[in-house]
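Trying the structure run again after the queue cleared.
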Amino acid sequence: MVRAVPRAMVWLGLVAVLACNSESRKTEAARATVQRFFEALPSGDCAVLGPLLTGKAADTCRVTVDEMNEHGLSLVEVLDARVDGRDSSAVVVRARVARGGRLQEQPLLLRVEQHPEGWKLRL
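Done. Tokens:
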């Protein structure tokens, strides 16, 4: 016996699929932003790094980048990324980092926000 699926259930399923696709795109964009930032960090080039930072961090790129490089901060791996439950235009990225060549025990939490000109790190 074939049972009809209520129209509301079909719509709920469709909305769930679209939401998953949207979240996946956001988390992948945030991961890529974190990776691009850390790949460019050793160069200290604020022409590249500045646009990847939000707010005052972008204005003070040189100080931020010099401090991070002074501590030898480097990305080991992105562990995961999740859309922030309080703000759907932000993703919290959990990353394993090394400081001065030593792997840090606790992952670093990075907030990556969606802006009209692209995804940016809030440091």
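The two ends are 58 Å apart (CA to CA). Worth checking whether this holds up in the mutant runs.
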